[in-house]
């Protein structure tokens, strides 16, 4: 005798959230997320999770709702430690987002070519002896940012440096303006003052 279990109407979007962020351009999932946001939050809280939803910027993700000491024992959400260089690139992408939003943007999304991201990053990374190696390292950091969900590759381009990426707005939730300000304070302290 088989019994059929009726799935919750938000099961698909819940599974997607547990794997990573959901953004507004994922129409079906986004509409379900907005429709069932209260039910999702009520389902997640007893599991030690909370739904972070920014309707204006169009992204949502799940994070731990437990204090850090309890969180170490229970981990639903995949965490990954970033290297120093990966962190710097994310701060630079966040800076690009801040400039875009305070400027006179005519579009909702910030799209940049790989070449433009590399040019911006070059100012902050110390170039090693080999320029080719240095550029490969920046390319690797860009690929890591894409893999982590902070960059989204637009339609493929045959010239790698002309490849366009959308800088995902979720970066604002991960790197706050306070983190940006702290980064600039540290930069100013690192630069020797002229006497």
From TrEMBL:
It holds the Pfam family DUF4194. InterPro entries: JetB (IPR025449). This is Uncharacterized protein DUF4194. It comes from Chitinophaga japonensis.
